[in-house]
Design goal:
436 residues, alpha+beta, Beta-Lactamase, 4 domains, 5-stranded antiparallel sheet, 5-stranded mixed sheet, 12 strands, 18% strand, PAS, histidine kinase, kinase, phosphoprotein
Length: 436
């Protein structure tokens, strides 16, 4: 080893300088070689990058096209067009995705076709129904009108977009009054010689968040005429039957009385005359009941104390009172309600119920009063219950079928209602509701 301490100082500096120069030269050589390699690699990458990008783009082009097609078909489905389908030759997950997408399109097409067919059927039914149908929006504009509505209100012209009130202003007063009353109801158009009867029905519902009204106008003239003819035929049969049942015995007894008088058998005349009187009075009551049912006047409603009214009713027919009315009162026509309850109580006594089982229950309801006539007779089967309130329907041999029908007329004339139901344990309950 060279001892630097023994060398001259100038020589030491020279050695250090030579070593430093050698180190710098070595580093410069290494760095130049590295830079050359990097520049060469960079140049190679720069030259190969467009070609690589081209090949990558060419390799992924089918998938990109598939994704664009999928996006396009989704947009078409959203717009309601289900006529598109996709084709993919590859397998794997993308092939399964395309197959699932095509199955979805087929299902949507089938559903759309079924929906279109149902809409076509519904539109055909709506357009060809004899019932006039109008759909009105919140601003009273006609949204939809079928052919019957166009013929009735627009002389066959389209009504969509027109104001309903302006259309009604061109109709008869009966039309305008029926719409002004609101709700459902029947009204007559024309005079007695040429009149049409309509039924008006109105229903409200929400469509697209807005309240709309559906108006139905049904012409009932022909149907009611048929029902009227059938009713008159039934009335004539009932009246003819009752008249024959009374007049035939009267004629026979009158002839027998004349024979007894000719023979001088006066002791048997009182019985014959009594029978004639009985049949004549029965016929008189029958005709009176029909006249009362046909000419029922509008009720004259007044405030009546229930206790006093029920006391008068109890003096005419026997019943047990359930519920104490006290000094409270109802508002009704005394004569009509008395006739109604007398008919109901008479039916209860004729049902086979014991006299002490016939009861009248009076209850206070939120909307008025409820009167129940109760018995423990045989009740009614389902067929009789559904027809018992119809005029001229009776299960009694000599019944006129007007008692319950008259009670219904009286209840409805007061704005109330009547209902029949069988009681648990046997018997019938006739419930009459009278509003205040």
């Amino acid at each position: 080893m060279v001892r630097l301490a023994r060398l001259p100082l100038s020589m030491v500096f020279t050695v250090v300088a030579v070593l430093h120069a050698a180190l710098v030269a070595t580093l410069a050589l290494v760095l130049s070689r590295w830079l050359e390699q990097w520049l060469a690699a960079a140049v190679a990458i720069a030259l190969d990058l467009p070609l690589l990008a081209y090949h990558v783009r060419r390799a992924f082009a089918p998938m990109a096209s598939l994704f664009r097609a999928l996006a396009g078909t989704v947009d078409s489905y959203r717009d309601g067009d289900f006529s598109f389908g996709l084709t993919w030759r590859g397998q794997g997950e993308l092939g399964e995705l395309v197959a699932s997408h095509n199955r979805l399109g087929d299902a949507l097409r089938e559903q759309r076709l079924a929906l279109v067919q149902r809409e076509l059927l519904l539109d055909t039914m709506v357009q060809n129904t004899p019932v006039a149908m109008l759909l009105v929006d919140p601003s009273r504009r006609v949204v939809h009108a079928n052919l019957a509505a166009r013929k009735l209100l627009g002389e066959g012209r389209r009504l969509e977009g027109q104001d309903l009130d302006a259309l009604l202003s061109t109709t008869s007063d009966a039309f305008q009054e029926a719409f002004a009353r609101g709700g459902d109801g029947m009204f007559t158009v024309g005079d007695e010689d040429n009149e049409d009867i309509y039924h008006l029905a109105r229903r409200q519902f929400r469509l697209n968040g807005r309240r709309h009204e559906l108006i139905l106008l049904r012409l009932l003239t022909a149907e009611l005429r048929r029902q009227e003819v059938q009713t008159w035929k039934k009335v004539i049969r009932v009246i003819s039957h009752e008249l024959n049942n009374s007049l035939a015995p009267i004629a026979s007894l009158a002839h027998s009385g004349a024979e007894l008088l000719r023979r001088g058998q006066h002791d048997r005349l009182p019985a014959a005359l009594a029978t004639i009187e009985d049949r004549a009075r029965h016929l008189e009551g029958f005709i009176r009941d029909y006249a009362q049912f046909a000419k029922l006047p509008a009720p004259r409603r007044e405030n009546v104390q229930w206790e006093h009214f029920l006391g008068q009713l109890h003096s005419q027919v026997q019943f047990r009172l359930e519920g104490k009315p006290g000094d409270r009162s109802g508002r009704f026509d005394v004569a009509q309600l008395e006739q109604c309850l007398l008919n109901l109580l008479k039916n209860a006594h004729e049902s086979g119920s014991a006299h002490d089982e016939v009861a009248l229950a009076l209850r206070r309801m939120p909307e008025g009063w409820r009167v129940d006539v109760l018995d423990r007779g045989g009740g009614m089967n389902e067929s009789v219950l559904s027809n018992a309130l119809l005029p001229f329907y009776s299960t009694k041999r000599h019944g006129t079928g007007l008692g319950l029908a008259l009670a219904r007329e009286i209840a409805e004339a007061h704005g109330g209602r009547i209902a029949l139901l069988n009681r648990e344990g046997g018997g019938l309950c006739v419930s009459l509701v009278l509003p205040d």
